[in-house]
Amino acid sequence: MSKKILVTGGAGFIGSAVVRYIIENTQDSVVNVDKLTYAGNLESLETVENSPRYAFEQVDICDAKALAHVFEHHQPDAVMHLAAESHVDRSIDGPAAFIETNIVGTYTLLEVARAYWNDLSNEKKSAFRFHHISTDEVYGDLEGTEDLFTETTPYAPSSPYSASKASSDHLVRAWLRTYGLPTIVTNCSNNYGPFHFPEKLIPLMILNALEGKPLPVYGNGQQIRDWLFVEDHARALYKVVTEGKIGETYNIGGHNEKANIDVVRTICSLLEEFVPNKPMGVTKYEDLITYVKDRPGHDVRYAIDATKIGRELGWKPQETFESGIRKTVEWYLNNKKWWSRVLDGSYSRERLGNQ
């Protein structure tokens, strides 16, 4: 039986991948609730925006009244909560937005969802799910080279961003324990892939290299991340919201640990293959690598143990890092219209002009 799923942050990078996955691969309907901040881009949803199973509501998750109207009007069977401020550097420069969206916004959404859930029939009430999508950064970083984050790793966030996400995770679990709201939490590793906002590492390196600009790498570039292709993540999230167990946490990782510098070198190597005609003055793309001062509180290593979701829900990533990064570089080379409109701000200016 098909469901109606309310996705917050559905115009963002991971959220749009989830929306596209649901519309293109299931019979379920999606209500996309997004405030459309700088990182929200409806152009990432052009392939599904005309589907009769897709609806968009421009609403801030901190606006309880508007949210309640969305729930009342659309009557969702589940919530997938992805709306968040998520850029670590931005959280260091200006933490207030992270406190507001990630903590206050999650609280507001929980309360609106709880009021809605309380009024459902017993059958709909028992089927309802509130799925909160979080990050591995809540765990802090790993000291040893063999350690992995599990679902029971203690929280030790390092940045204002990860602290705000840790707080939202605790709120979600408290609403289950105190009020019985049927919640599930997932914590994922670093995502990459098509439609990634260009301030993030991988798209930034691709686009800077194409323009012959420096490729800024923090510190010595040895920070290790577990890379997860965004479309693999979308499949996992749908598995969790439809088959996951209430009260459980599922870690989602790509089984692809890479040092940042190796990621950048891989991108350079692929660009040598795909775009041998380099910008003026560039002999090799790798020559553009520039080491810059490390950011405050920079975590050294993240790595996810995704055994549980594989064992209990039968999910595993389909992409290796090598196959996923190749697809990603090719996507950026073939979709200049999308990222050039992000870089020059026209995607957002036109949106503001239409309001």
UniProtKB/TrEMBL annotation:
GO molecular function: dTDP-glucose 4,6-dehydratase activity
Domain NAD(P)-binding: 6-328
EC top class, as a word: lyase
Pfam families tied to this protein: GDP_Man_Dehyd
Enzyme Commission number(s) of this protein: 4.2.1.46
InterPro entries: dTDP_Gluc_deHydtase (IPR005888), NAD(P)-bd_dom (IPR016040), NAD(P)-bd_dom_sf (IPR036291)
A Gene Ontology BP annotation from the UniProt entry: nucleotide-sugar metabolic process
Cofactor field: NAD(+)
Reactions listed under catalytic activity: dTDP-alpha-D-glucose = dTDP-4-dehydro-6-deoxy-alpha-D-glucose + H2O
Entry similarity comment: Belongs to the NAD(P)-dependent epimerase/dehydratase family. dTDP-glucose dehydratase subfamily.
Cross-referenced NCBIfam families: dTDP_gluc_dehyt, PRK10084.1, PRK10217.1
Protein name listed in UniProt: dTDP-glucose 4,6-dehydratase
Species: Rodentibacter rarus
Lineage of source species: Bacteria, Pseudomonadati, Pseudomonadota, Gammaproteobacteria, Pasteurellales
